[in-house]
Amino acid sequence: MSYVVGFGDSYPIHVHHRSASIPWDGHQYSCEDGDKWLHSEDPNPNTLLGAMVGGPDQHDKFLDDRKKPWFTEPSISSNAGLVAALIALHDHPCESSNSNCVGSGIDKMGIFTNIHSFPSPP
């Protein structure tokens, strides 16, 4: 299982995050209003693509449960390290000195598809 939302075939679908679990329907909801989605068993209506959740416990057990944020909540501290590591491994499609490069904006899936691994030491 991947603990990065949207990466791989199996990843968390009950992420503990307001932007993922409350529908984007033009209404503003209070914290109390959000409780109905917090306690819902339905998958999140919005995918928080690329967010890394807390992950498994010390016994390698993971519960994809929105009401258990220690498993399913993405945090700034854990995601900062992940983003830094992925950026360091990312093959950018264009060199910065190449002014003829077209489409050099951010590719939201490129961070996953263009990852390369370091060769194993001899």
TrEMBL record:
InterPro entries: 6-hairpin_glycosidase_sf, 6hp_glycosidase-like_sf, Glyco_hydro_9
Enzyme nomenclature, EC number: 3.2.1.4
Reaction catalysis annotation: Endohydrolysis of (1->4)-beta-D-glucosidic linkages in cellulose, lichenin and cereal beta-D-glucans
One example of a Gene Ontology biological process annotation: cellulose catabolic process
Sorted UniProt keywords: Carbohydrate metabolism, Cellulose degradation, Glycosidase, Hydrolase, Polysaccharide degradation
Residue ranges constituting the Glycoside hydrolase family domain according to the UniProt record: 1-86
GO terms for MF: cellulase activity
TM segment ranges: none
Annotated family: Belongs to the glycosyl hydrolase 9 (cellulase E) family.
Protein name: cellulase
Organism the protein comes from: Vitis vinifera (Grape)
